[in-house]
């Protein structure tokens, strides 16, 4: 059973996003400021569009936290959409009054979005009824939930470090840097990349894509440091930690590939270059000199840093639009674009971190239990 569960709600241009997080032990220190910091990070990143100039994401804590400590009750959080002001009539929950409103239905299905399949599945002639919820605006609520999970991980001695490793085919080389060095450099880079030269090239690639009316995807990498041995299990498919991480990360809008450790690269290498040899030393215990497995063997964490990589496809809405069909007339059209991101890979990194945090916090609670932080601390041996 999931120990830490969360459920988000909210439309992209509705009044607000909400999230309920259930299963946090009592007594974990958690402040509004640390949730807001993660929300702020998600809004940064070179290549974003006009919407980010409107939104200033900030959390309102509705329940589950008192005087800076979790209560053990459901935590509910709210993030208002500033853009709602401009969409009140279009997004009104009330029945339409005859003869009012000039709103046109969205009938032009955008390639790369949920529009067409969602419209067919839910029998919506107005594709806005699909796109509002399919939008990655929802990731703000995931990041707020992730900040709650991060608070538990931090208390348990686990830290997450994330970096963008590729944008539009420009790849970073950070192989000579430690995770601590990477963590120091990331906030200074507008694309959250620790390789300064690659950072500049990535920004130039985004500028080029913008000028060409195109968009770019990329690759992000998250490392979880300080994870104890034994999270997840080999005994069932849905208890394997690698499977749980892959599902959570793949569920993020526009993520099309997830790797743990060497991932796809391992398929091309002989076994002698893929597996991590095991050593033992008095006082140190078991250790490995390499971490090609990315911290998980047989679905169980092995004590090495957990390394998760995710590939994001380019943003599907292009200023030089792709061909599609109007579902009312079945006639071809070329869309006119009002605004869109060119590249949201840095934002996606923050979302991947959030999903990794939620899975690891759930796995910690599964292994160590604890209704309150004191019991959990004892179980963790801290
Ligand atoms: C942080 C973030 C921002 C995004 N911004 C946009 C955007 O401005 N325009 C757009 O067309 N898609 C954007 N996307 C991607 C779409 O939400 C996503 O491709 C779409 O919902 C279809 O889902 P799928 O790619 O997972 O199939 C964004 C994704 C993320 C993670
Ligand atoms: C609002 C966010 O991302 C949005 C995700 C998104 C999409 O189609 O996924 C489309 C854009 O929204 P809009 O159509 O209102 O310009 C992005 O700005 C956000 O990240 O907070």
Automatic annotation (TrEMBL):
<keyword id="KW-0028">Amino-acid biosynthesis</keyword>
<feature type="binding site">
    <location>
        <position position="298"/>
    </location>
    <ligand>
        <name>FMN</name>
    </ligand>
</feature>
<dbReference type="InterPro" id="IPR035904">
    <property type="entry name" value="Chorismate_synth_AroC_sf"/>
</dbReference>
<feature type="binding site">
    <location>
        <position position="48"/>
    </location>
    <ligand>
        <name>NADP(+)</name>
    </ligand>
</feature>
<feature type="binding site">
    <location>
        <begin position="253"/>
        <end position="254"/>
    </location>
    <ligand>
        <name>FMN</name>
    </ligand>
</feature>
<keyword id="KW-0057">Aromatic amino acid biosynthesis</keyword>
<dbReference type="GO" id="GO:0009423">
    <property type="term" value="P:chorismate biosynthetic process"/>
</dbReference>
<keyword id="KW-0456">Lyase</keyword>
<dbReference type="Pfam" id="PF01264">
    <property type="entry name" value="Chorismate_synt"/>
</dbReference>
<dbReference type="InterPro" id="IPR000453">
    <property type="entry name" value="Chorismate_synth"/>
</dbReference>
<keyword id="KW-0288">FMN</keyword>
<keyword id="KW-0274">FAD</keyword>
<dbReference type="GO" id="GO:0008652">
    <property type="term" value="P:amino acid biosynthetic process"/>
</dbReference>
<feature type="region of interest" description="Disordered">
    <location>
        <begin position="92"/>
        <end position="115"/>
    </location>
</feature>
<comment type="subunit">
    <text>Homotetramer.</text>
</comment>
<feature type="binding site">
    <location>
        <position position="339"/>
    </location>
    <ligand>
        <name>FMN</name>
    </ligand>
</feature>
<comment type="pathway">
    <text>Metabolic intermediate biosynthesis; chorismate biosynthesis; chorismate from D-erythrose 4-phosphate and phosphoenolpyruvate: step 7/7.</text>
</comment>
<feature type="compositionally biased region" description="Basic and acidic residues">
    <location>
        <begin position="95"/>
        <end position="106"/>
    </location>
</feature>
<feature type="binding site">
    <location>
        <position position="42"/>
    </location>
    <ligand>
        <name>NADP(+)</name>
    </ligand>
</feature>
<comment type="function">
    <text>This reaction introduces a second double bond into the aromatic ring system.</text>
</comment>
<dbReference type="GO" id="GO:0010181">
    <property type="term" value="F:FMN binding"/>
</dbReference>
<dbReference type="GO" id="GO:0009073">
    <property type="term" value="P:aromatic amino acid family biosynthetic process"/>
</dbReference>
<keyword id="KW-0521">NADP</keyword>
<comment type="similarity">
    <text>Belongs to the chorismate synthase family.</text>
</comment>
<dbReference type="GO" id="GO:0004107">
    <property type="term" value="F:chorismate synthase activity"/>
</dbReference>
<dbReference type="GO" id="GO:0005829">
    <property type="term" value="C:cytosol"/>
</dbReference>
<dbReference type="InterPro" id="IPR020541">
    <property type="entry name" value="Chorismate_synthase_CS"/>
</dbReference>
<keyword id="KW-0285">Flavoprotein</keyword>
<feature type="binding site">
    <location>
        <begin position="313"/>
        <end position="317"/>
    </location>
    <ligand>
        <name>FMN</name>
    </ligand>
</feature>
<protein>
    <recommendedName>
        <fullName>Chorismate synthase</fullName>
        <ecNumber>4.2.3.5</ecNumber>
    </recommendedName>
</protein>
<feature type="binding site">
    <location>
        <begin position="133"/>
        <end position="135"/>
    </location>
    <ligand>
        <name>FMN</name>
    </ligand>
</feature>
């Amino acid at each position: 059973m999931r120990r830490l569960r969360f459920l988000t709600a909210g439309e992209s241009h509705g009044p607000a996003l909400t999230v309920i997080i259930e299963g946090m032990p009592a007594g974990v220190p958690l402040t509004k400021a640390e949730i807001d910091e993660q929300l702020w990070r998600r809004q940064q990143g070179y290549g974003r569009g006009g919407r980010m100039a409107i939104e200033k994401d900030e959390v309102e804590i509705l329940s589950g936290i008192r005087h800076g400590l979790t209560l053990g009750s459901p935590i509910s959080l709210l993030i208002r959409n500033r853009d709602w002001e401009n969409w009140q009539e279009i997004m009104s929950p009330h029945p339409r009054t005859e003869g009012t409103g000039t709103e046109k239905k969205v009938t032009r299905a955008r390639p790369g979005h949920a529009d067409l399949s969602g419209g067919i599945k839910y029998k919506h002639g107005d594709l806005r009824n699909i796109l509002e919820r399919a939008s990655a605006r929802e990731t703000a609520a995931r990041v707020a939930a992730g900040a709650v999970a991060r608070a538990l991980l931090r208390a348990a001695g686990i830290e997450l470090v994330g970096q963008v490793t590729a944008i539009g085919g420009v790849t970073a080389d950070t192989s000579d840097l430690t995770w601590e060095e990477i963590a120091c450099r990331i906030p200074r880079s507008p694309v959250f990349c620790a390789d300064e030269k690659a950072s500049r090239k990535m920004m130039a690639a985004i500028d080029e894509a913008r000028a060409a009316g195109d968009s770019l995807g990329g690759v992000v990498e998250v490392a979880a440091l300080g994870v104890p041995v034994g999270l997840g299990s080999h005994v069932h498919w849905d208890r394997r930690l690698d499977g749980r991480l892959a599902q959570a990360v793949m569920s993020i809008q526009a993520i099309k590939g997830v790797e743990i450790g060497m991932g796809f690269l391992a398929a091309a290498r002989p076994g002698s270059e893929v597996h991590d040899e095991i050593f033992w030393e008095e006082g140190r215990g078991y250790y490995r000199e390499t971490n090609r497995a990315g911290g998980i063997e047989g679905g169980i964490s092995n004590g090495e840093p957990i390394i998760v990589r995710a590939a994001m496809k380019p943003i599907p809405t292009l200023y030089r639009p792709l061909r599609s069909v109007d579902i009312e007339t079945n006639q071809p059209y070329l869309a006119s674009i009002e605004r869109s991101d060119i590249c949201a890979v840095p934002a996606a990194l923050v979302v991947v971190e959030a999903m990794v945090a939620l899975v690891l916090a759930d796995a910690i609670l599964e292994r160590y239990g604890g209704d309150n932080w004191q019991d959990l601390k004892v179980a963790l041996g801290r």
